[in-house]
Amino acid sequence: MPGRRQVLGAGGSLAAAGALGLRPSRAGAAPLSRPRRTVAVLGGGVAGLTAAHELAERGFDVTVHDRRAAWGGKARSIPVAGTAAGGRRDLPGEHGHRGFFGFYTNLPDTMRRIPFEDRANGVWDNLTTVPYLAFNRNDGKGDLFLPTLPPTTRTLDPGTLPVVLAGLLRTVPHLLPHEVVLLARKLAILMTSCDDRQFGQWEHTRWLDFIEAAGKSEFYRVMWGGSAKVIQALRPETASARTCGQGISKILYALLGLGPDGPFDRILDGPTSERFVDPWVRHLGSLGVRFVTGHHVEALDLGPDGRIAGARARTAAGPARIDADWFVAALPVDRVRQLWSAGIRAADPRLAAMDRLRTTWCQGIVFYLKETFRGPLAHLSLMDSPWALCPVGQSRFWSDPYAGTWGDGSAAESLSVVISDWETPGVLYGRPARRCTPKEIAEEVWAQLKEGLGDDVLPDAAPHSWFLDPAVARGADGQLTNDDTYFLNDVSSWELRAEAVTAVPNLFLAGDHVRTRANVDFTCMETANEAGRRAANGVLAAAGADGADEVELFAGAEPPGFAELKAADRTRYRLGLPHVLDL
Fold first, then answer.
1. Residue 523 resides in a domain
2. What is the span of the domain harbouring residue 51?
3. What is the gyration radius of the CA atoms in the chain, in angstroms?
4. Which candidate in 30, 215, 405, 475 could, as Cys together with 400 as Cys, close a disulfide (CB 3.0–4.6 Å)?
5. C-alpha angle with apex 417: 416 to 420, nearest 5 degrees?
6. pLDDT in tens, 378-421
7. Sheet with 318-322, side-by-side order of all strands
8. Claim: this prediction has a pTM higher than 0.70
């Protein structure tokens, strides 16, 4: 059985591991030879489009229904109506800036199968590398820049190198040796714990308790206690050690060149819908998929045979009925659980547990600037900002000239900012984001950006205009409402999450709240894509497909030797013993 020295040695050997090659693009599956059968996909986000894609390739008759007239769900771009002039397109808004990470495995496979112009790997070739992941501190406490390219290929940009070195010099004095050793040991525990311990122990342990944040230095608490906020839609106060450890481990592996799909951090070279979602919808249309908008699904009718007999939707023209052989409910958790009637809950009692899953707000605001953003070419995390802001000068990575392509020519760039914390009071108005007006949110975010980045990066004259995700709006009572919440991955929430295949024979689930196991299971496009694949496999099994038709699920990479360490920990766990490093 490996000892503590061997476990720590395996963790340290990560830095010496070579970068893995990119996976080849997967060819589309051959259509089934059986007669076409009908599938209704309820929801046109990443999960729903993934399920539709896989089933259409296999010969099913698929219709996707969505309440909006735009596709892509939370991943879509949102044109700002009325801002175009001179033959340009409307300024592009975003629900939040999109990162495509090197530890993703399933989503890249789908992207390679979406044609785009003459690009060999489809829309996947529209990705461009973000050179740095940066953790910014206020008041000169140190900005930590992590290069995102694998060690064997990364080069330091001469213009950014002084900033990187200055940040390191300011950060090092805050690193207390005993805290560094503690954190290294904790991460080694998580990376080498077996699945039984992950789900049986660390899933039920709060992240802050696991890393022993209480009583530690301010640097330790902010950087590592708050790191859960960097993995958006997590809350350090309620997230589990398993989920946070999974995210940090995947990030670390990718930064060290162990990501199975290239550099750690990439974004699209243009607005998300233009470079990803719209080509996807066009491709699905070429496969025979039909798209129906304006359908607010309100109920599923359970027939006397225990199957879903149909879905009822509300439309502008009145009630509508959706009929199909199989139903894939690819809706967010707060919407899909409203469809569970007493009969459906009785047929699958696990669905009732979804009532206890929580949601959170994690929206984006875009600032259109009169001049080029002066900040670094990086995904930034403002660790001291009360609202846990994550900005990126996204249009600097776009292939088309901004002023000549979007708007009226007066906006030179877009700065996209994710607001990860809507509950903490801000610095300008002293209220949390969800208690502010949209205008106050814009002013508050700008003030926090200036605190974190400085006046030289964000001069007062820089903003041209701003655009807040329209899902956040004022309700009839004057309070903000959110039409697009995120599933919140809390401690012990795994037990409340449903499988893609339900006990109702023709009902399947897709979405980032569904249990996923191939790679990651925290809220992201990768999780939604895997859930869509699992739902498609459920339909295939129900239709009597053989194994050759099965949709492939791609696992994430793991450093050499870790499987043996996890096997040894499995023995310890089953004997009731703690992890070998759990002192």
1. yes
2. 38-69+293-355+494-542
3. 24
4. 405
5. 150
6. 899 999 999 999 999 999 999 999 999 999 999 999 999 999 99
7. 296-302, 308-315, 318-322
8. yes
288: left (phi over 0), alpha (psi -120 to 50) or beta: left
Query: Are 387 and 423 in contact, with CB atoms under 8 Å apart?
Result: no
How far apart (Å, rounded) are the C-alpha atoms in residues 385 and 404?
Answer: 33
CA distance 218 to 383: 12
Per-residue confidence (pLDDT) for residue 155, from 0 to 100? 59
Task: Summarize pLDDT for 117-156 with one digit per residue, the tens.
Answer: 999 999 999 999 998 888 888 876 667 888 887 666 655 5
Residue 6 domain-assigned (yes or no)? no
Q: In a 10 Å sphere around its CB, with 0-12 CB exposed, 13-18 middle and 19+ buried, how is residue 467 labelled?
A: buried
Rounded CA separation 469/70 (Å): 14
Residues 467 and 366 both lie in one domain: yes
Query: How is residue 307 written in tokens?
Result: 């199957």
**536 to 248, 331, 545: CA distances (angstroms):** 29, 15, 11
Strands (E), 244-357: 265-268, 290-292, 296-302, 308-315, 318-322, 326-329
| Alpha carbon distance 300, 538 (integer Å) | 18
Residues of the chain with pLDDT under 50: 1-28, 31-34
Residue 165 has φ and ψ, to the nearest 5°, of -65, -40
pLDDT of residue 172: 75
Written in H, E and C, the secondary structure of 526-577 is HHHHHHHHHHHHHHHHHCCCCHHHCCCCCCCCCCCCHHHHHHHHHHHHHCCC
Same domain, 475 and 502: no
Q: Is residue 141 part of a domain?
A: no
Last residue of a domain, one of 482, 505, 530: 482
Residue 406 CA neighbour count, 13 Å, CB half: 23
Domains contained in the chain, number = 2
- The residue count for the chain: 583
Distance, C-alpha 93 to centroid of its chain: 18
CATH code of the domain containing 505 = 3.50.50.60
